[in-house]
User: Which sequence fits this backbone?
């Protein structure tokens, strides 16, 4: 299957931004800064990692973003850890 990459498909980029909208304002602000800095350089692996993070509850995600917790289990993968570091620096 030859799927279009995130960077070459404006619809996929818009969907990713839509999925980033959260119920907690703090998370929304972090994601807004993140996309402002890194959206144009995100790889498909980065998008996959973000998608996995978006599956978390708002509170679980906020705890990761604010370094209250660290990724563990199936979230302790290099791509997720890398994207989380970018989110934390945004």
Assistant:
């Amino acid at each position: 299957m030859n799927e279009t990459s995130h960077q070459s498909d404006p619809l996929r980029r818009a969907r990713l931004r839509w999925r980033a909208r959260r119920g907690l304002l703090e998370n929304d602000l972090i994601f807004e800064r993140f996309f402002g800095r890194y959206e144009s350089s995100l790889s498909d692996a980065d998008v996959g990692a973000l998608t996995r993070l978006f599956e978390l509850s708002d509170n679980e995600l906020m705890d990761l973003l604010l370094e209250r917790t660290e990724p563990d289990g199936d979230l302790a993968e290099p791509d997720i850890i890398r994207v989380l570091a970018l989110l934390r620096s945004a």
